[in-house]
Amino acid sequence: MEDARPILLLDTGVGGLSILGPIRKLLPQAPIVFALDQAGFPYGQRTESELSARVPALLGRLAEHVDARLAVIACNTASVIALDPVRAALAIPIVGTVPAIKPAAAISKSRVIGVLGTAGTVRQPYVDNLSRDFAADCTVIRFGTHDLVELAENKLRGRVAPIEAYRAVLDALFSQDKGDEIDTIVLACTHFPLVEEELAEAAGRPISFVHGGDGIARRVAHLTADQKWPADPVPGRAIFISDGSDPELLRPGLEQYGLHSFETL
Ligand code: DGL
């Protein structure tokens, strides 16, 4: 028997595509629903209590609406703040996206790691704990930025920004104490891998960028290993929790990720 239930991904915008890409590669038969909480954007500037209330309620509603088999919180900010309340509220398996500090510590030679995330993510004790548990012998330098979120949103709408905009963000890391020794940067917001090429160019020296996409795809594959998928690929579905902006501006960008059907809630 086929099982048509989709994998549901939630982010505030296009960031979740950096998680969707690896999932589609690993599980090409999996039906996908990609939810964009544009009305809640940006999570990185919301309070802990706002997100702890909003994310479980919204994800619960969406999971029921689409009959999801599994949900991925394709957002670092929502995951580090609201993973526990989401798991408590929903009966399906939940995969979170947390800063990839462990893989970064595994490859850094200089033992100085940068973490770029939203302001909401980089201030979390969750990040202190990851640093203590997996990067105790590294200096971990953090910077919270909303600018990269906007740059990624604009890029997916076909709007190109000058490389200086990316350089300004990196300078905020490199100018901190020991920042000139950073050889590895954790992209701890799902929007940021979408502008990795621009960051690499702006860095002006070799930097390894690390994020969680591939690991999350493997986790989803593991959790669904004994499940069935539809025999023929199903077109991906984008659901906009709308802020009133025109979803059509995103159509070319989202279609590249197999999202062909658009719906507004
Ligand atoms: N993509 C989200 C994350 O991974 C943040 C974007 C936002 O601030 O809404 O943290």
Describe, in plain words, how this protein is organized in 3D:
Helices cover about 40% and strands about 20% of the residues. By secondary structure, the protein is of the alpha/beta class. Helix 1 links the parallel strand 1 and strand 2 (about 30-35). Helix 1 packs across helix 10 (about 215-225) and helix 2 (about 50-65) crosses helix 3. The radius of gyration is 18 Å and the shape is globular. The two termini are about 30 Å apart. The mean pLDDT is about 95. Bound molecules: D-glutamic acid. D-glutamic acid binds next to helix 3.
How many structural domains are formed by the residues? Answer: 2
Average of the residue pLDDT scores: 97
Distance between the termini: 31 Å
CATH architectural grouping of the largest domain: 3-Layer(aba) Sandwich
Structural class computed from helices and strand pairing:
alpha/beta
Which descriptors apply to this entry?
globular; alpha/beta; Rossmann fold; four-stranded parallel sheet; 2 domains; 265 residues; six-stranded parallel sheet; single chain; binds D-glutamic acid
Question: In short, what is this structure?
Answer:
This protein has 265 residues and is α/β, with parallel strands linked by helices. It has helices spanning 17-26, 48-66, 76-89, 101-107, 119-122, 125-134, 147-156, 163-174, 196-203, 213-223, 251-255; strands spanning 7-11, 32-36, 70-73, 94-95, 112-117, 139-144, 184-188, 208-210, 236-240, 259-264. It is 42% helix and 18% strand.
